[in-house]
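**Protein record**
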Amino acid sequence: MADAKLTPSLFDKLTIDDRVTSIIDDGPAIEAAVGATQLRLRPVSQLERYNEGAMRTSVRRELNWLLNTVHLGAVQDLSRYPHVARSVLNYGMPDLTGRVSSREAVQGRARQIEESIRLFEPRLDADKLHVEVGTEVGIDNAVSYVIRGDIVSAVRAMPVQFFANVEVETGEAVVRE
């Protein structure tokens, strides 16, 4: 059975390298003309090669961008503008730099991360999304979070799990699978 075709995000469509040279076999007609062992080079669109791994990488990359962007609500009171608070004008997270690392604050950040992902990463099923504080040891001056969910822009739900380490002093997040 052929692999189901996945649809890349608009960003991926606009930035993907349009053409890649790849070796393919053009079938019996070319074999008769040049011999069974000779192949020729033909450009193949990267969009044709967009697969499950590329989808996971794209979601991970965009989660990384989301967690490393300070949203407008961090510097501007948006309580009178609820539509702005839920729009792309407020893309990102509250500033995580130098925040107190009490248990309640760390749990609160997990909820903020989950809410931001629900708002700005539509490829993850909001009903299956869960962010919790990680138990990773050996990371100095960082808090780890586990992000679990299903990518639903695929033909069938694709379960994923990402790990985000947020450096306490700088607020820098690193997301990995």
